[in-house]
Amino acid sequence: MLQPLKIFRTKKGELGFDFDDGSRAIFRLRDLRLACPCALCVDENTGEKLLDPKTVPEDIRLESIQSIGRYAVGILWSDGHRTGIYPYELLKRLTKQP
């Protein structure tokens, strides 16, 4: 099971993960917020994105981050969104998208 060795912020304010398989994932905060996989942001039946990108501020901030078991992180965003759980496997896959 993929595990982060380190979770960090970059000088640009991005959120990064160094994983135990030697890979690294670094995200602009807004991009990570837009990728939220929760049922409020993505239709559970169709997979259709429900989150309107226009509603997410360019300068969104990470208010807090916490471990969810050994498989994910939960993030509280400055827009009040708090239901997103980001599995480590999803974070790794997101770094490979064009």
From TrEMBL:
InterPro entries: GBBH-like_N (IPR010376), GBBH-like_N_sf (IPR038492). Keywords: Iron, Metal-binding. It holds the Pfam family GBBH-like_N. It comes from Hallerella porci. This is DUF971 family protein. It comes from the Bacteria. Signal peptide: none annotated. Residues 10-91 form the Gamma-butyrobetaine hydroxylase-like N-terminal domain.
